[in-house]
Design brief:
By secondary structure, the protein is an all-alpha fold. It has 6 helices and 2 strands; from the N terminus they run ββαααααα. Helix 1 runs parallel beside helix 4 and helix 2 crosses helix 3.
Length: 161
């Protein structure tokens, strides 16, 4: 944590390497390859990157980038950069999709447990089970006994495990 000198309050800082930077490519393709891939004129590319046209010509002659940001901007304009981003997006979608499916399973399990508890009886609690949960008052005695036997069977299975 860094201390703000003016107020003395502490503020959280991102740890080194946090954020999107670790996903940026470590090594960039050669400038001339990226330039050919983009297919823009030196003047148009200079306007897009916000640099001088002579800088583009220096990079074409093999001079290294002044700032890595120029190289990254060029990289993400190529098909390799777009593929790089698309791969990250797809991986994130798969991770979040799996998390969503897991949460749906947890919610279904909790709803089933809530339904079983609602079947046991209506005791006039302030926090009754939710809407649509059937209570023992609405059920026949036969169904109530079935639920009790299912619960007893689950308890026995848990004790054996």
């Amino acid at each position: 944590m860094a201390i703000n000198q003016s107020t003395g309050a502490s503020r959280a800082r991102y740890p080194r390497g946090a954020g999107w930077l670790p996903t940026a490519p470590k090594v960039l393709p050669a400038f001339d390859l990226m330039f050919d891939e983009i297919g823009a004129s030196p003047a148009r590319l200079a306007r897009h990157l916000g640099c001088d046209r002579t800088t583009i010509y220096r990079w074409l002659d093999g001079e290294p980038f002044e700032r890595r940001a120029y190289g990254l901007a060029m990289f993400y304009e190529t098909r390799w950069g777009r593929s790089f981003v698309a791969t990250d997006v797809e991986n994130d979608a798969r991770v979040y999709g799996a998390a969503m499916r897991f949460q749906r399973e947890v919610i279904a399990q909790q709803r089933a447990q809530l339904a079983k508890l609602g079947v046991l009886g209506d005791f006039g609690s302030a926090n009754d089970p939710g809407e649509g949960v059937t209570t023992a008052i609405n059920m026949s005695q036969t169904r109530t006994l079935e639920v009790f036997s299912e619960l007893a069977h689950e308890i026995q299975l848990r004790r054996q495990a």
